[in-house]
Design goal:
CATH superfamily: P-loop containing nucleotide triphosphate hydrolases
Structural class: alpha/beta
Largest sheet: 6 strands, mixed
Mean pLDDT: 92
Strand content: 25-35%
CATH topology: Rossmann fold
Distance between the termini: 46 Å
Oligomer: single chain
Shape: globular
Order of helices and strands: EEEHEEHEHHHHEHEHEEHH
Helix content: 25-40%
Low-confidence stretches: none
Bound molecules: adenosine-5'-triphosphate
Length: about 240
């Protein structure tokens, strides 16, 4: 395959349950490298479950996840990570007693080449100058917004083909959310990484996405361009507020 041709992540008829709770049912979604896809939905709609199934963290009961045509659904999470899918889980899980630099290095544990590691570190510091300023501080001492930057930076350390972000806005003050989304918007414009962005904050997610899906009670109910979704009356009423 030529380097410039886009890779495709295809989710087909994906279902998953926790005991008797059918968390997601028959999810179909796609993302290509170079595009950003938003998945919006309220609490408990199944957004995290969808991402966790793609990453191999939660087992699916049915369906397929194809990475360039290759089914990765039964692969363990570390294999899926090595194939180029990185997850930024909900809840800013940093290693609090490790420094910012050490946290970032943990993200690149599969990179052995020192020169590549240095290049990735420079890339992340360039994207998040705040992390460069705080590289010797313990991650546990960072603000919530800085910790969110750190977990995104950590996932970018191994130059993933696809980045799966779970609610980066959660629990952050509006001004901090704006700051982080400005940076994510820069990432969207400048990188070839395909991004699946799961968000309850539909307005901000759709403002940077190319396309979007609405997830309700475990099922995709609307799929459209971000522009269309931003102007959709139902989406506006349910997820944007008017
Ligand atoms: P949130 O924004 O609250 O994280 P979500 O859209 O990401 O919501 P999921 O976390 O995927 O939704 O949850 C989907 C459904 O599965 C919900 O009904 C939730 O209660 C249930 N669920 C999620 N995780 C578990 C679990 N570990 N055990 C049992 N039920 C779960």
């Amino acid at each position: 395959m030529e380097e410039s041709s886009p890779m495709k992540l295809v989710v087909e008829q994906l279902s998953a349950s926790y005991g008797s709770i059918n968390a997601i049912r028959g999810i179909n979604l796609t993302c290509e490298t170079g595009e950003t896809v938003a998945v919006i939905g309220s609490n408990g709609a199944g957004k995290s479950t969808t991402l966790n199934c793609i990453c191999g963290v939660v087992p699916a009961s049915e369906g397929e996840v194809l990475l360039d045509g290759f089914d990765i659904l039964d692969k363990p999470p570390h294999k899926i990570a090595m194939m180029g899918i990185a997850q930024v889980p909900e809840g800013r899980r940093v290693f609090p007693r490790l420094t910012v630099l050490e946290n970032l290095e943990m993200g690149a544990y599969i990179v052995n080449d020192k020169a590549v590691l240095k290049e990735r570190l420079e890339y992340v510091y360039n994207l998040f100058p705040r992390l460069a300023e705080r590289q010797r501080q313990n991650a546990g001492d960072l603000s919530g917004g800085e910790q969110q930057m750190l977990v995104i930076g950590r996932a970018l350390m191994r130059n993933p083909k696809f980045l799966l972000m779970d609610e980066p806005s959660l629990g952050l003050a509006p001004v901090v959310v704006e700051n982080i989304f400005d940076i994510i918007a820069g990432l969207v414009k400048s990188s070839e990484t395909g991004i699946i962005l799961v968000e309850q904050n539909a307005a901000i997610a759709l403002s940077i996405a190319n396309r979007g899906y609405v997830l309700e009670n475990g099922e995709i109910t609307i799929e459209a361009s971000a522009e269309e979704l931003l102007h959709d009356d139902k989406v506006k009423a349910a997820y944007i507020g008017g």
